[in-house]
Design goal:
By secondary structure, the chain is α+β, with helices and mostly antiparallel strands. Helices cover about 65% and strands about 10% of the residues. The protein has 4 domains: about 1-30 and about 210-375, Multidrug efflux transporter AcrB transmembrane fold; about 65-195, 2-Layer Sandwich (Alpha-Beta Plaits); about 375-410 and about 610-749, Multidrug efflux transporter AcrB transmembrane domain (Multidrug efflux transporter AcrB transmembrane fold), CATH 1.20.1640.10; about 435-575, no CATH class. The chain has a 4-stranded antiparallel beta sheet, sandwiched between helices. It has a 3-stranded antiparallel beta sheet with strand order 8-7-9, with helices on both faces. Helix 8 runs antiparallel to helix 9 (about 265-275) and helix 22 packs parallel to helix 24 (about 650-670). The protein is elongated.
């Protein structure tokens, strides 16, 4: 098949180049259609029960996402500070897409009056003298409904909570909030955070990283290619492959509505790093044929016959490695796996059509025809081959010891999904996040939706007992719900006596209190109770997003729910911490599935190609060794298993098997023409070894540019992949030949 394709390309090279250029123009216009998505809930499929619960709370209670503005006023209880907060609050309430704004200047207070209650703002009029300000300060800081909730306990920092409507255009809302802060000249005092803000910051980081890292990756490839081939065509042609591949793949994503995410953000870097692999192998073998005296036509045909099948197989196995990620339940990992697998296939198609067409049209360079030209690395690789062959058993013993050492580190791996880790320490977003955590209990919120007859005193008492248990959980702040409003209403109706701060005892009293609150114009009621009084919401802030602490907290909350509610009431626990918790579970499950599928596919394919179980196993050993070393390093060096590092193993299998396939293919080729085992291994290491070295260097250095990413998880991902490429190529050049030598040498004798 590849031979026929080569003849076809040789017959119509100009037509093929023109067709590829036209398709590239078509896909180029698809680039503008690519969206950027970073919302945590977008990770889950539409029918996922956790996402469904989150969306229901979002729709029922006016929005589950908040932007938080932390105002470091030095002293909140001053005339100027309160006026600034009040003006800011009023302007934020006018922003399109905002459902509600809560601050010290508009927070509600329930007061008893002769005919019932009135719901008024805590600060109806900003005091203008020191005595009244001190009295207000004492009243606010002595009330735990306010202190630590919207005012720091030292009275120096204020929190403004902005609730976004479910259908709000988040990017526009956050931009409007920033403009209002700037207009009020609060830039030096205001810190902005919250889930909606973090989403936007990640989106900006994705776009910024793409614009900075892609040119850097291309420059890296130019350097590697020039060192490899020492001429312009050796740089330009492989570079054209990767540029066209990226345009086709991302254009396809645009046309099919597949967005970029914090995970797929690295896909163009991957395609640039990997897309030149087949080109390097073909160009290296083509030059080898020219140096042996073959003319251009015969050299190209011999090249495709010799390495074309290996390139096809490596492309298929790489596609399988990435395609295995499609088994994940997480949408962004699924999209990343599918898009990258398609991109790898596109790179192969461009290589065997567009790339070969140019080679047919261009005359061989004089340097390529020089039989005496010095080949970089040739001497070193010849010595390396001698070492591996004479020390084969030692090589395998060392590899075994490394596996044992790495295996001991695997149990130490810590699954993590701390979203704040996407921002560097000291960054404005992270500083704001730390401020709200230290002073207001956290930027993330758990939400508990209770369904049933909320006017039933028994249901309300169960909610109260649940809230008491929640308050005792260390990383959770004081929870709020309709329970708090009803207790305060009861107290207000009894002249503010503390002993009456309790829930009403009958359903009629509850209905009456809710009517009073509704008639009094309570804005908080809609955020705590559904219109039909069939659902109530409990909310509490979470002071950490660390996986281990969050998991313990969720377990305690779930046990408290089981303790206080029976089957008559449906209680749903949701919120961004719950989404993150489930994402980690699905991530680990998906990682194991994709890992097993990828290794199994590669093993079966290698058995089919080699027609031997033993050879198939031998070719799978280098990537298996690399995967174990990768996880071992993560365990020993306490590198968390996050959404980025979770996909490394599948990438390693997809890319790393290429080296073993090319090595084994050349080795069998040399044996087939009568070379001894030792000769075949030496020729393979000294010739194919060059292409493997440059390929691994290109892929490793291409990924290494990610260390300059603005998001630390991507930086970790970059150097981990570069390290695994080193391990994988080294294993293919040491462990694989050692295994082949010890087995085939014995058979040869």
């Amino acid at each position: 098949m590849l031979e026929k394709l080569t003849k076809f390309v040789g017959k119509y090279p100009k037509s093929i180049i023109a067709a590829v250029i036209l398709l590239t123009v078509f896909f180029y216009f698809g680039l503008s259609k690519v969206d950027v998505v970073s919302d945590l809930e977008e990770m889950f499929p539409e029918d996922d029960p956790v996402k469904t619960a989150y969306d229901q709370v979002d729709a029922t209670f006016g929005g589950a996402k908040f932007a938080m503005i932390i105002l470091d006023m030095n002293e909140v209880f001053s005339v100027s500070a309160l006026q600034e907060i009040d003006r800011l609050t009023l302007d934020l309430e006018k922003v399109k897409g905002v459902n509600s704004v809560l601050s010290i200047t508009n927070v509600e207070e329930i007061r008893g009056i002769e005919d019932g209650i009135e719901v008024v703002e805590l600060i109806e009029e900003i005091p203008d003298n020191e005595a009244e300000l001190l009295e207000l300060k004492h009243r606010v800081l002595s009330n735990d409904d306010y202190a630590g909730q919207i005012i720091s306990e030292n009275g120096k920092i204020a929190l403004v909570m902005v609730q976004l409507l479910p259908e709000a255009a988040e990017e526009n809302v956050i931009q409007d909030i920033r403009e209002i802060i700037h207009r009020h000249e609060l830039d030096k005092k205001a810190y902005l955070t919250g889930e909606a803000v973090l989403d936007q910051e990640v989106d900006k980081a994705i776009v910024g990283d793409m614009s900075r890292l892609l040119p850097l990756a291309i420059l890296m490839m130019i350097g590697i290619l020039y060192i490899s081939f020492r001429n312009i065509r050796g740089v330009v042609l492989p570079l054209l492959i990767v540029i066209i591949t990226v345009i086709w793949t991302m254009g396809m994503m645009g046309y099919f509505g597949i967005p970029l995410s914090p995970i797929s953000n690295i896909m163009p870097i991957i395609l640039i790093s990997m897309g030149i692999a087949d080109g390097i192998h073909i160009l290296a073998r083509y030059r080898e044929g020219l140096a042996q005296g073959l003319d251009k036509q015969k050299a190209l045909f011999a090249t495709v016959v010799a390495v074309g099948l290996a390139c096809l197989i490596t492309s298929v196995t790489t596609m399988a490695g990435f395609g295995s990620l499609y088994t994940s339940s997480l949408i962004q990992i699924k999209d990343f796996g599918l898009s990258t697998a398609i991109g790898v296939g596109i790179a192969f198609i461009i290589t065997v059509t567009f790339f070969l067409a140019f080679l047919y049209l261009l005359r061989p360079a004089k340097r390529e025809l020089d039989k005496k030209r010095k080949i970089l690395l040739k001497g070193t690789l010849v010595k390396w081959a001698g070492f591996v062959i004479t020390r084969a058993k030692t090589v395998l013993i060392i590899a075994g010891l490394l596996v044992v050492l790495a295996s001991a580190g695997i149990p130490l791996i810590n699954p993590e999904s701390d979203f704040i880790d996407f921002f560097k320490p000291g960054s404005p977003v992270r500083s704001a996040y730390n401020l709200v955590t230290e002073n207001f209990g956290g930027a993330n919120i758990i939400q508990i939706a209770v369904k049933g007859n909320i006017q039933d005193p028994e249901v309300l008492q169960a909610m109260e007992h649940l809230q008491n248990d929640i308050e005792r959980i260390e990383i959770l702040s004081k929870p709020g719900s309709i329970v708090n409003l009803l207790r305060n209403t009861n107290k207000a109706l009894h002249e503010g006596k503390p002993e009456y701060e309790m829930l009403p005892k009958t359903e009629e009293e509850v209905a009456q209190y809710l009517l009073l609150l509704s008639m009094g114009g309570s804005d908080q009621l809609d955020n705590m109770l559904s219109f039909d009084y069939e659902q109530a919401l409990i909310q509490s802030r979470v002071s950490t997003t660390k996986n281990s602490e969050r998991d313990k907290m969720i377990n305690k909350v779930e046990k408290a729910i089981e303790k206080h509610f029976d089957s008559n009431n449906e209680v749903v626990l949701t919120g961004s911490p719950i989404l993150a918790h489930n994402m980690v579970n699905l991530m680990i499950k998906g990682q194991l599935q994709s890992l097993v599928l990828a290794i199994l596919f590669v093993f079966v394919l290698m058995v089919i190609i080699s027609r031997s179980l033993i050879y198939g196993a031998f070719c799978t050993v280098p990537i298996t060794l690399t995967v174990i070393l990768n996880f071992g390093i993560m365990g020993w060096f306490k590198i968390p298993l996050d959404v980025a590092s979770a996909i490394i193993a599948s990438i390693v299998i997809g890319i790393g098997i290429d080296y073993a396939i090319h090595f084994f293919s050349r080795y069998k080729e040399e044996l087939a023409i009568g070379k001894s085992v030792e000769q075949a291994l030496k020729i393979t290491i000294s010739n194919t070894g060059q292409a493997i070295f440059y390929n691994a260097a290109a892929v490793g250095l291409g990924f290494l540019v990610l260390i300059f990413a603005s998001m630390p998880p991507l930086a970790r991902f970059g150097w981990l992949i570069a390290l695994t490429m080193f391990f994988s190529s080294m294993a293919s050049m040491t462990v694989l030949p050692a295994l082949l030598y010890l087995r085939d040498r014995r058979r040869e004798k």
